[in-house]
Amino acid sequence: AQSVTQLDSHVSVSEGTPVLLRCNYSSSYSPSLFWYVQHPNKGLQLLLKYTSAATLVKGINGFEAEFKKSETSFHLTKPSAHMSDAAEYFCVVTSTGFQKLVFGTGTRLLVSP
Amino acid sequence: DTEVTQTPKHLVMGMTNKKSLKCEQHMGHRAMYWYKQKAKKPPELMFVYSYEKLSINESVPSRFSPECPNSSLLNLHLHALQPEDSALYLCASSQEAGADTQYFGPGTRLTVL
């Protein structure tokens, strides 16, 4: 079975400060892990993907995530938040042979000036 | 190019209407998906097509009828919908069904009166 837990439903930061969005996963197989971002009334945009090539994954817009097998975590970080980062972020897990993505419940990132 | 297009962007329909949602991709992907997303929730998988054949139906009511006319097109035919079917309908595609990255379209915002 696979599951994803996003530990915070809301995260508030000030512009220019670091961002940390937390995600823990459970998977019986070698997982593929994703972070997607969704701006209001928009579709989902892929931020980054982990597929076992490297534990530190760099994505678009300055985001990165580190896969930690021992902690079953895949937290998303960014050194300096921008106002345009305000959105909903989904952590997602799947595995080879599975046709479904398993979504976390989402974390809403709020960025204040 | 990683673009998935969806039309229309917005749709308002009565409970006795028949309408269709359209999704298109030109990335040569062989898997296409329909998701339903309610406000403040993650997307929920409805259907998966792999090589133009329906491979997963997540027990979706028959008032939703998917169709895959060719490898680039995916339709969702709607008939006799209920107000609770109002949601954002997202289409996605991936190279193959499985752990491949899914690319999402911008969605169709459906309102059922």
Strand content of chain A: over 45%
Radius of gyration over C-alpha positions of chain A, nearest whole angstrom: 13 Å
Major interchain interface with per-chain residue totals: A-B, 24 and 26 residues
Sum up the overall morphology of chain B in one term: globular
Quaternary: heterodimer
Which spans of chain B have pLDDT < 50 for at least 5 consecutive residues?
none
Largest sheet of chain A: 6 strands, mixed
- What does the overall shape of chain A look like? globular
Order of helices and strands of chain B: EEEEEEEEEEE
**Span between N and C termini of chain B?**
37 Å
The helix-and-strand class of chain A reads mainly beta
Tally of helical segments of chain A: 0
Mean pLDDT reading of chain B:
94
List keywords for this structure.
heterodimer, A: 113 residues, mainly beta, 6-stranded mixed β-sheet, 55% strand, globular, B: 113 residues, 7-stranded mixed β-sheet, 4-stranded antiparallel β-sheet, 0% helix
Short note summarizing the structure:
By secondary structure, chain A is an all-beta fold. Chain A has strands at 3-6, 10-14, 19-21, 23-26, 31-38, 44-50, 56-58, 64-68, 73-78, 87-95, 102-103, 107-112. Chain A has no helices and 12 strands.
What does this structure look like?
- The complex is a heterodimer of chains A (113) and B (113).
- Chain A is globular and about 45 Å long.
- Chain A starts with a strand and ends with a strand.
- Chain A is built from no helices and twelve strands.
- With 113 residues, chain B is mostly beta strands.
- In chain B, strands 2, 4, 5, 6, 9, 10 and 11 form a seven-stranded mixed β-sheet that branches. A four-stranded antiparallel β-sheet of chain B has the order 1-3-8-7, with no helix packed on it.
- The radius of gyration of chain B is 13 Å and the shape is globular.
- Classes of the chains: A mainly beta (113), B mainly beta (113).
